[in-house]
Each structure stands twice: as C-alpha cells, then as structure tokens.
Amino acid sequence: MAKIKLDDTDHFILDMLIENTRTPFTDIAKKLDISAGTVHVRVKKMEESGIITGSSLTLDYKKLGYSFIAYVGVFLYKTSQTQFVLERLKEIPCVTVAHVTTGKFNIYCKIRAKNTSHAKDIIYQIDDIEGVTRTETMISLEESINDKKRLMHSIFKDI
Fold first, then answer.
1. CA atoms of 52 and 47, how far apart (whole Å)
2. Res. 148: pLDDT tops 80
3. Distance (Å, rounded) from C-alpha 22 to C-alpha 34?
4. What domains are defined for the chain?
C-alpha cells in the first residue's frame, strides 16, 4: 500500500480531531479558511487510506467511580493457550486493554476498578482462568502522560 502524503492542512485537521473527535467540520474549516466540503474530502481520504480508523469517546472514569488503575502481567502455562486466555479476558469488563508481549509476561493487561478490593476481585478472576499460572500486578499511582499529539507531530516531522 502506498504511503499517503499529508500536508499542513491535513495535520491541522488531525490535531483538531484528536483534541475533540466531535469538532464540526465547519469549525475546522473556519479556522483554516477553507470550505467544510474540503475538510470532509480530506477526512474521507484519510479514512479510506486507513490513517483514521473510526473515532473514540474519552470517558472520565474517576467521575464514574473507577479511579483505580492497575497493570497486570499474566504468566501462562503454555503460550499456545494465549488465544484462549485472551477470549476469557474479554469476558471481564474491567480488563480494558490486553497486549500479547515478549519478555517477562505472556500477556499484559490494564484494569480499571473502583478500589483495591474491587481490583483484587478482578485479579482473582484473571488468576482463575485456565492456563494462567500466576499474575504480577503494578498499581498506577498517577497517569502522568497521555498525549496522542506528541507522537503524531513527531511522525509528521519524519514525513
């Protein structure tokens, strides 16, 4: 697949949409002094090329009562059980992210919980999955960096 060329206008559009995916194309167009149709065409081009894959909504989990974050490294009895374990992890709603990894863990998960007691229950659920030999948990004290724009701007400089 050919690499798509993005210009400064595309970069600005992406900047605004990363900040707020619900930004109306008319607002973006006004800031760029172009038509909303042009914004629409450019976004469509980036969607068709696979650069933009949907949009997302950011929730404030603290306000919903889920302020406890932990990372759980999962050790498997056999790596051939990875898919089975991933399917079981999908059944636990508080497991919000799971990566198959190399190194110390077979799978690395992010969990969100109400408190330490709730997190313990989630970790016990993970431990009870057939094929899991043990887990190792790290508690997040604070999310210090969660910035999608810095990497994007670095990529733009490389293009």
1. 5
2. no
3. 19
4. 8-57 (1.10.10.10), 68-139 (3.30.70.920)
